[in-house]
Structures are given as structure tokens and as C-alpha cells.
Amino acid sequence: MGRLYRVGEFAALTGVSVRTLHHYDRIGLLRPSAYSDGNHRRYAEQDLLRLQQVLTLRYLGFPLARIGELLRQPDFDLVASLRIQRRALRDRIAELERIDAALAELTDRRLATGRWHWDLIVGAASAVQDELAKKGTQMDAYYTPEQMKQFEDLGKQVSAEERAAIEHQWTELIAEVRANRELDPADPAAQALAARWTALIEASFRGNAELKDAVGEQYQQGRFADRPELPTAEDFAFIQRANEARDRHRPDGGDAG
Predict the structure, then answer these.
(1) What stretch of H or E contains 169?
(2) Cut 0.85: pTM above it
(3) Distance between CA 196 and CA 172 in Å, rounded?
(4) What is the tens place of the pLDDT at every residue in 185-227?
(5) Do residues 56 and 83 lie in contact, with contact meaning Cβ atoms separated by under 8 Å?
(6) What percent of the chain shows pLDDT beyond 70?
(7) Cα 155 off chain centre by
(8) How far is CA 124 from CA 13, 94, 99, in A?
(9) Contact, 191 vs 160, CB < 8 A?
(10) How far apart are CA 182 and CA 171, in angstroms?
(11) Tens of pLDDT along 75-127?
(12) In principle, which of 53, 143, 207, 248 could form an S-S bond with 147, CB 3.0–4.6 Å?
């Protein structure tokens, strides 16, 4: 089997967080090759190849559940898969190079002439929008067509300025939650964070409970486990504890939500 790596060593070697490796193990996507006498995970060099497959397919937009299905297929051809992945990555690289070229030409012309060339701005915007559209199609793997339509309708209700403001508030709030997760859930500061969290969810989903639940389900399934800028299981757990503490201390003992 060769050398075995402790989970921390394997995480440092691959750049994948220990939390993500634990999640991949829980869902059966990447099981460690062995366990120590103390039942600690031990990864072998062969696990590197499996992880490479997971990460590359994840980058290409496949949801974790679909990646697991692909890798479990008895007729799965690793070499053929690698060739397909290389072709897809070459396509992605070509797209990114097109965006880079458009931005470079726009910048160079601005520096050379001292003015903006609107035709080049249009070209740069178009190049970026094409890539965004491709990324947007990845949502199809996570949500039903009806939910996708609801997302589209929701987007029309929120201006670009308001959307940017909400995203900024989420970034600030997530950072504050992570800095205060050791607080007593009943502490006023923890309660204030939970209240802001609830208010931002309302602002983000405009009361659409179906979309809120659909997105919550994706988080529970670990779809975004490799996106550190998004809320983690620990963040959600802190907010849940704060909400439970709030409900326990309500005069009527009822549910405030």
C-alpha cells in the first residue's frame, strides 16, 4: 500500500481542508484506505488519484452526488475520464484566455489613448457574460426547473445595487459569526448575530420558503463544502443554538420564527 498519511498530512499535501476530507468520507466519496488502531483516518497514495478525480470534476461543475455516481460505475474508465477532463479544461482555459485578451486590449488602449473605447468595453463585458452564463447552467444540477424559474423571478425583484449590498452584508456577518462562535448562545451579542442572520435570509429570499429550503438542503448535502466564503456547518450550528436559546427564554416559550 505504500506510505500512509494522517488526515492532517493529507490535507496539507493536497490543499483540501480536513473538514472537507471528513465530509467526503461521511458521504462515501473518498474513504481513507485504512484506519489506525485508534480509529484515525489513514490515507494512501492511491487516494490521491481518487481525490484528484473528485476535485477536477467538482471544478468542472459536477455536484458531489453525481461525482459519486460516476466514480462508482463498474465500467468507469479512469484514463478515458482523464482525457475528457483535459478536453473540458482546455475549453475552460481557452475561454479564460479570451476574457484575459479582451481585458488586456481594453487596458492597453486606455493607457495608449487616454480614453475608454466603448466597443472594447462591450467586447470585454460580452466575454465575461459568456463565462458567467456557462457557470449559471451548473445550477441546473442542483435545482428543479421550477426552482430555477423562481430564482430567475427573484433576481428580477432585486436591483444590482441591493444585491451587492446583501452580498457585502453576508460577507461581514459570516466573518463576525466565525469570530464569535464560542459565545454563549444566550449572550446578547450571539442573539444579535442570529437576528441579523434571519433578517438577511429574508432579504435574500424575499419570503420564498421553497427556495430557502432548497438552498438549505444543498448546504446539508455538502454541495458547498469547498467554498470557504460561504456559511459552513459550524456557522449554521451556532445560529441554531442562538435561536434555540432565544426560544427558551421567550415568555410564552413559543417559536418566534
Answers:
(1) helix 160-179
(2) no
(3) 11
(4) 999 999 999 999 999 998 888 888 888 887 877 777 676 766 6
(5) no
(6) 78
(7) 19
(8) 37, 15, 7
(9) no
(10) 19
(11) 667 676 677 667 777 877 887 888 788 888 878 888 888 887 767 666 666 66
(12) 143
Q: Are strands 41-44 and 4-6 parallel, antiparallel or unpaired?
A: antiparallel
Say if residues 177 and 235 touch (Cβ distance below 8 Å).
yes
How many residues appear in the chain? 257
CATH code of the domain made up of 4-72: 1.10.1660.10
SS3 141: helix
What lies within 8 Å, CB to CB, of 8 at 6+ separation is 18
- Within 13 Å of residue 174, how many CA atoms lie on the same side as its CB? 16
pLDDT band at residue 241 under the 50/70/90 scheme: very high
List all residues 6 or more positions away from 73 whose beta carbon is below 8 Å from its beta carbon: none
**Quick one: pLDDT at residue 31?**
92
Cell of 202: 429574508
Alpha helices, H only, 15-117:
18-26, 45-59, 64-72, 78-113
Grid cell listed for 149:
424559474
Q: What is the DSSP letter of 33?
A: S
Residues paired with residue 41 on neighbouring β-strands, in sequence order: 35
CA distance 11 to 13: 5
Contact between residue 205 and residue 154 where contact means Cβ atoms under 8 Å apart = yes
**What residue ranges do the domains of the chain occupy?**
4-72, 78-138, 145-248
Number of neighbouring beta carbons within 10 Å of residue 112: 9
